[in-house]
Amino acid sequence: MGRVANKVALITGGASGLGLASAHRLAEEGATVIIADINQEQGEAAASQISGARFELLDVSREANWIALVDKVVAEHGRLDVLLNSAGIVRLASIEDTTEEMWRLVHAVGTDGTFFGCKHALRVMKPAGRGSIINMCSTASIQGGPQIFSYAASKSAIRGMTKSVAVLSAQSGYGVRCNSIHPGNMRTPMLEGVAATVRENDPDAAQAMENIWVGEPVDVANMVLFLASDESSAVNGAALVVDNTTTITEGAVPKAVPR
User: Fold this and answer.
1) pLDDT for residue 211 is more than 80
2) What pLDDT does residue 201 have?
3) Which of 55, 149, 151, 226 is catalytic?
4) CB 26 within 8 A of CB 82
5) What is the SS3 assignment for 202?
6) Residue 174 pLDDT more than 70?
7) Is 151 a catalytic residue?
8) Which domain holds residue 140?
9) Which of 12, 52, 169, 220 is placed for a possible disulfide with 174 were both Cys, Cβ 3.0 to 4.6 Å?
10) What is the CA radius of gyration of the chain?
11) Are strands 8-12 and 82-85 parallel, antiparallel or unpaired?
């Protein structure tokens, strides 16, 4: 207990999945956590289960909403120490089947939301000379993702965005760190939604999915905790992969066999 004691952390997409798991871990280690999400009912329910957490409604695709929330956090707490940009959505489609509507929706939430978050977290962290911005990326930014084209493109943009913010901060002496986390398949509602669609449309592929390694949200939340803490003070601009070798293995990583 106490690895992020007295830190103020804002988590987007915090009502479920990796954002929610991260909210739990940061709160367990002493942080004040603000869960931000567009799903008010689910977000309020999540925050009510976490000691030291509260919920704020946020549409990450609108810069004005970011400005208002970040300023509110600073006004109430005096600072913002940690931002986790975890909000994101996926649409199953190759480039051939991706519509303009799909493309713009995925990028509005993932790419634009992360851009606005980085921009305004940096704005308020810079005067303090410290802070940690953590961008939830994906192994889809490392490997080809033919059936998640717009999602892979968004996560690739976020990877580049992360490095650019980190270098700017280091060169300018801002003291703000910016890193990205690249999970493989994790047991989240997003993955379950993808799996359900695959089961409906391609039973053979769905069967293959049943036999591959899938990690737990806490695996990623522990990486978030490390990056949020002062333990990672020299880690800046890193793309940290949490995938049990998925991106470096020929073929699929099999499901773990119980011993």
Assistant:
1) no
2) 65
3) 151
4) yes
5) coil
6) yes
7) yes
8) 8-187+217-241
9) 169
10) 18
11) parallel
Q: How far is CA 242 from the centre of its chain?
A: 12
- Segments in the chain forming alpha helices (H): 17-28, 40-48, 63-77, 100-107, 113-125, 149-172, 189-201, 203-209, 217-228
Q: Is 126 left (phi over 0), alpha (psi -120 to 50) or beta?
A: alpha
State residue 6 phi and psi, 5-degree precision: 70, 5
Residue 207 pLDDT > 80, yes or no? no
Residue 10 backbone phi and psi in degrees, to 5: -110, 130
Q: Residue 148 pLDDT more than 70? A: yes
Through-space distance between the first and last CA atoms of the chain, rounded to whole angstroms: 31
Structural domains in the chain (count):
1
Q: Determine the Cα–Cα distance for residues 125 and 132; give it in Å rounded to an integer.
A: 8
Read off the tokens for 59: 């549409």
pLDDT tens profile 39-56: 999 999 999 999 989 999
Domain contains 205: no
- Establish if 21 belongs to a structural domain: yes
The residue whose two tokens read 């690895």 is: 3
Q: What is the CATH number of the domain that holds 135?
A: 3.40.50.720
Amino acid letter for position 203: P
Confidence label for 206 from pLDDT (cuts 50, 70 and 90) = low
The answer to whether the beta carbons of residues 117 and 85 sit under 8 Å apart is yes
Both tokens assigned to 79: 């600072």
Residue 146 lies in a domain: yes
Rounded average pLDDT over 193-215? 66
Contact 223, 257 (CB under 8 A): no
Q: Please indicate, yes or no, if residue 194 is contained in any of the structural domains.
A: no
What residue has token string 């995925």?
Answer: 106
Question: Which pLDDT tens digit goes with each residue over 86-129?
Answer: 999 999 999 999 999 999 999 999 999 999 999 999 999 999 99
